[in-house]
Amino acid sequence: MRKLLWGALISICAVTAAFLFAWSGVYNIAASSGHLAVVGKFLQFGMQNSVETYAAGIEVPSLGPAHVEQGMLYFHSGCAPCHGAPGLSRNRVALGMLPQPPDLTRASNDWSGAQLFWIVKHGIKYTGMPAWAAPSRDDEVWALVAFLRRMPQIPAGEYRAATRLRDGESQGARTIANEGLIVGPFACGGCHGARGEGSSLGGVPRLAGQKTAYLEMALEDFAAGTRSSGMMEPPVANLDRQQRGELARYYSSINLDEVAEHNIGERIDEPRQLGAILAERGAPSRGIPACQACHGRDGRASDNTPQYPALAGQHTIYLTNQLRLFRAGKRGGRLAEVMSAAARGLTDEDIEGVAMYYNALR
To answer: CB–CB of 244/216 below 8 Å?
Structure first.
């Protein structure tokens, strides 16, 4: 009994001492003061073990070149200023943080794919590393992981070319679409291309030729957070209604035929024929309506349904991912209910066929 009393007394004294220490303000919380070496090592040890524990059991999906490209564009917009990139050093402001954001051009190989996924999705407390802005979009997180795993082997020149950084050209880091509605790394053109052509491997969609009404609706849904995307929500939230309308009109004014090109090396025959059947007739026995009923016979959307996107010439990989998100009920936005119902009965083969069909449609 006496031991229990002594134990309780010691515990009370320890808690009281800790409170008095915090209350006194003696502890220096300035980032400039740094941690004691033993404290820094202890915190790093705890963080590494926590990540290993919570990442256990996460299955890494198959990640290809299109995921690497998509993740590279994400990384350049949101991560490079703090973490550096091939040929780009970390921002001086970031170097004043405690702890400093790691230089991922060297450090990303210290973590497995599953561990990187957990870190990017959930963030890390007390480090300034935020959680992913759209927690339901695992596909975006995996794209970033694909790039992080590949980044140490990417030459600086390749990175600069892919992210459209051009020395001496104002449009490299500031053109968005509309000659400067947004400046800096969140410029639309950094991911979607200067003419709305999308990314070369198809992970980022083409915007050229879409209906103004659809683009405005999409931007409003991103701004409101009803359509989830860790890449689209932050920059769009800073636009007012007039700016969103100007962007929508700009991209809809571009002729799709000026920027659309066939993807190289795609399988065309059987999958695309299946896609043509679903697009033109649907599959009534499975509750799948014909795509062209809303998206138009030519895949460019009808003037009677301007709120639906044009699909003709859109990237296969992008369309495949969007249909899978609709099927899983994770896409969001005002078209989510009708499209999730339409996609619910689609198989992976159906989705691939429809995506290939519309990509080849001119």
So the answer is: yes
